[in-house]
Amino acid sequence: MYEKFIVLSAFFLTFLPSCFSSYPFNHRDADPFMSSHVYYETSHLHGHITRSSHTKNRHGNYAPRSSPQAFNVNSFGAKANGNDDSQAFMKAWQSACSSTGIVYIVVPNNRKYMLKPVQFSGPCKSSLIVFKIYGMIEAWENPSDYKVRRHWIVFENVDNLRVEGGGRIDGNGHIWWPKSCKINPKLPCLGAPTAVTFVECNNLKVSNIRLENAQQMHLTFQDCQNVKALHLMVTSPGDSPNTDGIHVSGTRNILIQDSIIRTGDDCISIVSGSENVRATGITCGPGHGISIGSLGEGNSKAYVSNVVVNKATLIGTTNGVRIKTWQGGRGMAKNIIFQDIIMKNVTNPIIINQDYCDRVESCPEQKSAVQVSNVLYKNIQGTSSRPVAVNFACSKSIPCRGISMQNVKLVDQTQQDVSKASCSNVRLNTLGNVSPLCK
Ligand SMILES: *[C@@H]1O[C@H](CO)[C@@H](O)[C@H](O)[C@H]1NC(C)=O
């Protein structure tokens, strides 16, 4: 862990001052990601403990003395027989959350549990909760049982939580997608649940989980701090509506690493209030690519800073790396690095759009804008499915500042030729070979 921090710090310290002396990354802010205790690995405990020294606890689970306690959802009445198991999961959660020390919640392998909307809330007495999902969790199919329409599984106000285990979470989105106004414009735009939401969780690690077919977004981190999201596989059809892979909102110090995300909307979306966001080793496509924004909708104030996206591969996505803001917004998106990125047949590989409008009716021209500044595109290569591979459409009243490109080479997929750049209201610095270039 410290190794990572040192590498990251070295990166910030050596690279940034040479390019942007005004870059205000705050590397004195100690550990950008985590307090250590969430990370130590426990290799024992795989849903069954057989050693004779263990004693049976009041739920019929075997738990080793002075070792982590395990709460198996089956012991709380989960049947995995097609009926709703959410009450059993809630009881297991309550028991775990009210126990001290390190606690495990176990969802056994080779079973499929059906859940209605559930909320796992803290604060908890435990020092660490490990939610081990070995089996499969599937969403309840009746939309009218979703009283809060925008959520399915919620973890709220839980500190020191790990969700892991190699299992699968399936939102049964095929029931919701045809009801989307994006699919059927005659229907009202009511939205659909996010499959898994973490709200106000600090020191959180989500790893080795498959998320599939979310009703709308797959995984959201909202107002969390110190988050790691690692080794995730997120998949839904390329034509499923609004199925963002990982959505980051109001979250500070988050690392998203070594994950594959193939969905119908943004691979990763980073919106207002997010700070110190690092995404590395991400493969996207199909989908809409990696987005910062949209920001500033409805004249709102938005603030996103210190984002690093590196070692990403985007395949057949509609955008590569995108910053999108609405006209009329306020605030800023600043200190953003897109580095070591491969694009394959991407429609808009590099794009800043300050005239974003995701409505049927057009959006009126407005003076104010979310300021976009200090953005570096470095070592970006590959192909664009359209002639314009670089598109900076910045605000007339608040132009983009400090936009730098270094070693960028994007060619047109069809012609295998140089592609074009379209640039307005942008001041561009270039280093090394950059193609295409703004005229
Ligand atoms: C490239 O993407 C376009 C759509 O954006 C698609 O029609 C085309 O088949 C793709 N080409 C290849 C070689 O994948």
Give an overview in words.
Belongs to the glycosyl hydrolase 28 family. This protein has 2 helices and 29 strands. The chain folds into 2 domains: 43-54 and 64-264, Pectate Lyase C-like (3 Solenoid); 266-358 and 366-439, Pectate Lyase C-like. By secondary structure, it is mostly beta strands. 50% of the residues are buried. The chain has helices at 2-19, 86-97, and strands at residues 55-56, 62-63, 69-72, 102-107, 112-115, 118-121, 128-133, 136-139, 151-156, 161-164, 168-170, 194-199, 202-212, 219-222, 225-235, 246-249, 252-262, 268-271, 275-284, 290-295, 301-315, 319-325, 330-346, 348-353, 371-384, 388-393, 400-412, 420-424, 426-435. It has a 16-stranded parallel β-sheet that branches. An 11-stranded parallel β-sheet has the order 6-9-12-14-16-18-20-22-24-26-28. The chain binds 2-acetamido-2-deoxy-beta-D-glucopyranose. The site of 2-acetamido-2-deoxy-beta-D-glucopyranose has 5 residues, from loops.
CATH topology of the largest domain: Pectate Lyase C-like
Helices, by number, come to 2
Low-confidence stretches: 1-57
Number of beta-strand segments: 29
Measured between the Cα atoms of the first and last residue, the distance is: 45 Å
| Class inferred from helices and paired strands | mainly beta
- CATH 2nd-level architecture of the largest domain: 3 Solenoid
Whole-number count of domains: 2
- Rg is 23 Å
What is the overall silhouette? elongated
- Ligand set: 2-acetamido-2-deoxy-beta-D-glucopyranose
CATH C-level class of the largest domain is Mainly Beta
Percent strand equals: over 45%
CATH superfamily of the largest domain: Single-stranded right-handed beta-helix, Pectin lyase-like
